[in-house]
Design brief:
Blueprint lengths: L5 E4 L6 E4 L1 H10 L10 H7 L6 E9 L4 E5 L5 E5 L16 E9 L2 E11 L3
Parallel strand pairs: 5-7
Antiparallel strand pairs: 1-2, 3-4, 3-6, 4-5, 6-7
The structure holds zinc ion.
Zinc ion (ZN) binds next to helix 2.
Length: 122
Amino acid sequence: MPYRDTWAVCTNCGTQFVFTVEEQRRLDKQGFDLTPPTLCPDCMRLHEMTPGPHEGVVKWYDPEKGYGFIIQRSGNEIFFHKSGLAPGSPRQIPDGARVRYRVQATGRGPQAVDVTVISGSR
Ligand SMILES: [Zn+2]
């Protein structure tokens, strides 16, 4: 699929910004859809720290260690512990699996909870 720099307008702050080719390439590689964002990068980062729910992609999850990381749409990564997995979640979660999650503030920073696998890796 050809990528093209696309202008977009933030629905939160009204800022005009470019949805860049680099960004589209990264999203595609990480398994996100290429729908133009409705939030500028700054608002997106703030939005991703709200309770959500949000969608992301599992970077990796190690059932032995009992934790892993989710890549958020902005590219930031968020920690999750196995206790944050929704009941009935599979023991193994493949890299690249799409998940829905909520964000909870903890003493050690934000953490993903209620992590639900939506689909396996591509
Ligand atoms: Zn904005």
